């Protein structure tokens, strides 16, 4: 489904319904250049595709002619060996404890405070939070079960077990959830047509799941301005980055962080590796200063067997 969206948004406007045999390599190169330069933000706040996003779009284009070439429908794939500039390392933005406290103080609605505490305290993706039901929360037992996501059209259950996960819930994360409370039925279509077991936890003021863009503009950006951090660049993703950053900074293993975050690859989690505290105890234990007193307990010297 995601590939279909990329074709509709990026490929069809560029190449339309032209036969693949009519598309030449230079044309693809020019399209990639335009893709990287296109402003996907606003005039006041320009933004460009990240290298990974551009690579994903190009990979879809590569795949279509490759299948045609393999089938003998065209002689060569005009999109193969198309080079993208190396992706620049993006500096992940996250809150320090002091910055987060100042941000929360600037949030006006207690329901929004409950939401941001939950986002920072669980690291859930926005669409996982928007699709979260009360039946997946065990506040007394301190656990949240991540099983479903909001797709902006309906609620879809994760089809793969590896995408599902159970997370610990700390008391401060749920301290304000009583102001949210159940309010009527779910009212949202479930893709598998199953009967909804409970209400959605976080809803818009008028009911229904939260919209990320509306909430970001109405709540997040307004609170950032009031907190005096107007040009900080914080986004909804900052809450998730904060969760991972705080875990890594306090010594959590990257494998554990990957599990909690729902990362499919540890490579994604390694983005936060530089935040890990410098651990030298293992080196100090393994390499004491060589002295006569330590010689007796040192590892045996290497001997060549004849």
Name some characteristics of this structure.
306 residues, mainly alpha, hpI Integrase, Chain A, 2 domains, three-stranded antiparallel beta sheet, two-stranded antiparallel ribbon, globular
Structure overview:
Helices cover 41% and strands 5% of the residues. It has 306 residues and is mainly alpha-helical. It has two domains: 2-70; 97-274, hpI Integrase, Chain A. The protein has a three-stranded antiparallel beta sheet, with no helix packed on it. It has a two-stranded antiparallel sheet with strand order 3-4. Strand 1 (137-138) and strand 2 form a beta hairpin. Helix 4 crosses helix 7 and helix 5 (110-122) crosses helix 8.
In brief, what are we looking at here?
The chain is mostly helical.
Determine the strand fraction and express it as a percent band. 5-15%
Secondary structure: helix percent = 40-55%
Number of helices: 12
What's the gyration radius in Å? 25 Å
Describe the largest sheet.
Answer: 3 strands, antiparallel
Q: How are strands sequenced across the largest beta sheet?
A: 1-2-5
Kindly name the structural category: mainly alpha
Q: Any low-confidence stretches, pLDDT <50, length ≥5?
A: 65-76
Q: How would the blueprint of this fold be written?
A:
Blueprint: H1 2-15, H2 25-37, H3 51-70, H4 97-106, H5 110-122, H6 126-130, E1 137-138, E2 143-146, E3 148-150, E4 155-157, E5 165-168, H7 212-226, H8 237-249, H9 254-261, H10 266-269, H11 281-286, H12 292-295
Antiparallel strand pairs: 1-2, 2-5, 3-4
Helix pairs in contact: 4-7, 5-8
């Amino acid at each position: 489904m995601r590939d279909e969206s990329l074709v509709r948004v990026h490929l069809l406007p560029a190449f339309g319904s032209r036969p693949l045999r009519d598309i030449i390599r230079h044309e693809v190169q020019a399209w990639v250049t335009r893709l990287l330069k296109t402003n996907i933000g606003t005039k006041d706040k320009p933004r460009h595709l990240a290298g990974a996003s551009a690579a994903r779009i190009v990979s879809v284009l590569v795949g279509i002619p490759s299948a045609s070439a393999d089938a003998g429908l065209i002689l060569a794939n005009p999109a193969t060996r198309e080079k993208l500039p190396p992706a620049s390392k993006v500096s992940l933005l996250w809150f320090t404890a002091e910055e987060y406290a100042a941000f929360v103080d600037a949030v006006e609605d207690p329901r929004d405070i409950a939401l941001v505490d939950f986002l920072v305290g669980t690291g859930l993706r926005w669409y996982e939070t928007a699709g979260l039901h009360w039946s997946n929360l065990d506040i007394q037992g301190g656990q949240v079960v991540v099983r479903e996501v909001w797709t902006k059209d309906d609620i879809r259950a994760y089809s793969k077990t590896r995408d599902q996960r159970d997370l610990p819930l700390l008391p401060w994360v749920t301290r304000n959830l009583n102001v949210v409370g159940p309010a009527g039925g779910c009212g949202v279509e479930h893709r598998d047509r199953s009967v909804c077991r409970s209400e959605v936890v976080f809803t818009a003021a008028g009911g229904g799941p939260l919209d990320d863009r509306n909430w970001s503009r109405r709540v997040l950006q307004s609170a950032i301005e009031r907190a005096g951090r107007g040009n900080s660049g914080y986004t909804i993703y900052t809450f998730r980055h904060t969760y991972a950053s705080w875990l890594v900074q306090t010594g959590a293993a990257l494998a554990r962080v990957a599990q909690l975050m729902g990362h499919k690859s540890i490579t994604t989690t390694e983005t936060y590796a530089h935040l890990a505290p410098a651990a030298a105890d293992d080196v100090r234990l393994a390499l004491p200063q060589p002295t006569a007193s330590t010689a007796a307990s040192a590892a045996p010297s290497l001997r060549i067997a004849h």
